[in-house]
Amino acid sequence: MPDYPDIWFLRHGETLWNREGRIQGRRDSDLTARGRAQAAQQATIVAPIVPKVLAAGGAIHVSPLGRARATAEIAMPGLPYEINPDLAEVGTGAWEGCLKADLPQGGFDLDIYAAAPDGEGFDILQARVRRFLDSLDGPAIVVSHGLLGQVMRGLVCGLDRAGMAALPNRQGCVFLLRGGVETLLEPQA
144 with 63: CB under 8 angstroms? Predict the structure, then answer.
């Protein structure tokens, strides 16, 4: 298992399409009021972490999609970040914009999402996540997406595909990836 630098992973806040149960993939919808509140919760978690990451030569890396950028701007206001296309959510082709409940499989997880007609597929997604991870030369704060996050967190923790699919996709928290172990960070009560 590769030895990656410390990573703090933030999934974007809830969007209108998340709330409606729609597949977003590479398409976007705005953060809801709840999604903005989740990003504000993440701000309380990362506030003491960001200066340490930047002082250690690390960086903030963000998906080019609007929901991730909006989350980054709420969670880390005024801080510079790098847009990285490798952090975009998995492309879901013909299913983008569809309701999850309308899928023929009747369910939804990493394997189903990655099998979308005309979509990107799991192997390509995993390759670009690995390319991003291999490019890191210092600690990183990453703001991205649920399924991409499952793959990233799984690669860092040495999980197989089934293990990745079983990872939670929570919003409003931060996942610390350190030494091949994931730790959930939540706002202090």
Answer: yes
